[in-house]
Amino acid sequence: MISILKNKRIVLGVSGSIACYKALDLASKLTQAGALVDVAMTGAAQKFITPLAFRSITGRPVYSHMWDEREHVQHVNLGEEADLMVVAPATANTIAKLAYGLADDIVSLTAISLRAPLLVAPAMDGGMYAHPTTQANVATLISREVEIIGPAEGRMASGLVGKGRMVEPAQILARARSVLGQQKGTLSGRHVVVTAGPTREPIDPVRFITNRSTGKQGLALAQAALDAGAKVTLIAGPIAAPMPPDAEVIHVTSTQEMHDATVKACQNSDILLMVAAVADFRPATISNQKIKKTAAEEWGMAISLERTLDILEAIKQRRADSGSPKVVVGFAAETQNPFEYGRGKLIRKGLDLIAINDVTATGAGFGVDTNRVLLINRSEAVTDLPLMSKTAVAEQIVSMAAGILAVKENQM
Ligand code: CTP
After folding, report:
1. How are beta strands 388-389 and 271-274 bridged, if at all?
2. How do the domains of the chain map onto residue ranges?
């Protein structure tokens, strides 16, 4: 469960565009994430999709016009009670109404009684988005702190290619979560650095040494920190899964690259979540050319290795001088004696918290969506989390890191 959206009142305003079908997906994603989604539709939107379709997905009434007794009073409640309003798709007409404060349909009427943040996802064909009128209206909305998300470039319904496609629902969902996090999250205004995934150490131009990390726990941590309202820098090794859209992502490959990016990102940061499965060894020499079978046989088929840099050690030294990051969380994947090895790393690497997982336990470790984690803090207090989703593990760790940060700052 994505906790930031749980029981939040979200008004989804839908105006008339072929992108209405994407709004159904968005309503579904928000509802599945636990939000209470009140859909308000313009008359034009109802030409594309019926209120029944939204009602079936949200399980809540849909507001389709202004003139029945209930709706006319309801718009005020909708606007006042909402935690967030999202207008998606937003046509040129609806954007103009929002900019001018017109209120002649249930979407614009609700928007003008809104006391919460407003997120607008434009969708329009042809040159309508680029037209100076629309651009001026968008600028007006931005000046009033309305957030415009998209539109994206691509093929539009008319067959034209240009800027005007509504962004994907997953991107709007991610933005909704961040906006709510920034309003209400425990890490609002904070900078969190997350490292995720494996690193790769080249042997020659076509071969490398790596490990089985897929980056799932790291991505979940980045999302949990975003949900808590933080600005997130995600330093990602080679990971196939999609990145959280709201994170600032720095792609790296080798341990050296991850070291450099992490050290840089950690200047003036509040929390480092060092979850990457960093390669511990690298080939002592890297061949510029592909190593041929015959040559390898001559060398005796051995690759000699040397130690890579320990990134947390480097951070520990810098932190002693600068005090940044204020909180450092390390991770340890162990196959034996998780508590003893974990505690040793906590002390050696100067961590505030360590999350240890026994990668041999059922349902834990590489590639799966669940994890079984033991947490130890500086006072050696142990939290033994049961098997749970990586998302839930991430929320627990982020919340504990936020707690440690709060305690440290109160002590200063
Ligand atoms: N780590 C790091 N730099 C490295 C290796 C690991 O910063 N070169 C970090 C990991 O991201 C993790 C923590 O150190 O947060 C522990 O990683 P782990 O691989 O479990 O420990 P190691 O220090 O490599 O120790 P060992 O090989 O003895 O298990």
Report:
1. unpaired
2. 3-177, 186-411
Sign of CA dihedral 123, 124, 130, 135: negative
What angle do helix axes 169-184 and 216-227 make, rounded to 10 degrees? 50
Q: What is the pLDDT of residues 172-207, one digit of tens each?
A: 998 998 888 877 788 999 999 999 999 999 999 999
Q: Please, are residues 153 and 120 in contact by the beta-carbon 8 Å criterion?
A: no
- The pLDDT value given to residue 358: 79
Partnered with residue 383 across adjacent β-strands are 375
Mean pLDDT of 262-287: 95
Positions marked catalytic? 211
Ligand 1 in contact with 311 (CB < 6 A)?
yes
Is residue 379 within 8 Å of residue 355, measured between CB atoms? Answer: no
pLDDT at 412 over 70: no
Find out whether the peptide bond into 242 is cis, omega within 30 degrees of 0: no
pLDDT at site 318: 92
Q: For position 1, what pLDDT does the model report?
A: 42
- Fold matches, 3-177 and 186-411: yes
- The mean pLDDT of the chain is 92
- Is the CB of residue 105 less than 8 Å from the CB of residue 84? no
Q: Angle 189-191-196 (CA atoms, 0-180°, nearest 5)?
A: 140
- What CATH code is assigned to 186-411? 3.40.50.10300
The domain 3-177 is placed in CATH, from the list 1.10.10.10, 3.40.50.150, 3.40.50.720, 3.40.50.1950, at 3.40.50.1950
**Minimal CA–CA distance to 83: which of 190, 177, 222?**
177
- Sole residue written with tokens 């979850």: 275
**What's the CA gap between 116 and 314, in Å, rounded?**
43
Q: How far is the CA of 399 from the centre of ligand 1 (A)?
A: 23
User: Ligand 1 within 6 A of 345 CB?
Assistant: yes
Q: How confident is the model at residue 302 (pLDDT cuts 50, 70, 90)?
A: confident
Whether 308 is in the pocket of ligand 1, judged by its Cβ within 6 Å, is yes
The closest residue, in CA terms, to atom 20 on ligand 1 is 332
Query: Furthest-apart CA pair in the chain: how many Å?
Result: 88
Cβ neighbour number for residue 163 with a 10 Å cutoff = 16
The answer, yes or no, to whether residue 3 has pLDDT greater than 70, is no
pLDDT higher than 90, residue 274:
yes
**What are the tokens at 139?**
């600028």
CB 138 within 8 A of CB 97: no
